[in-house]
Amino acid sequence: MFQTAKTIIEKKEEEKKTSPNKGETLPSEVNFLVLPFFSLSREDSYKKDGLEYRQVVERDDKTEEVVWKVSPSQEYGYPRITDKKVFKAVEQLLRDRGYPIENPVTFSIYKLLNLMGKKSYGGRDYREVRESLERLVATTIKSKGTFYYKDEKRYLDEVFHLFSRVVFSGEKLPDGEEAEKNYLYLNSWLLENLNKYYVRPLDYEYYKSLDGALSKRLYELLGVKFFGLIKQGKPFLRYRYANLCALMPLKKQSYLSRARQILDPAHRELKGKNFFSGVDWEPREAGGGWYLRYEPGSKIKREVEGGSS
Question: Could you write out the DSSP letters of every residue in 24-52?
Answer without folding.
Answer: -EEEEESHHHHS--S-SSTTGGG-SS-EE
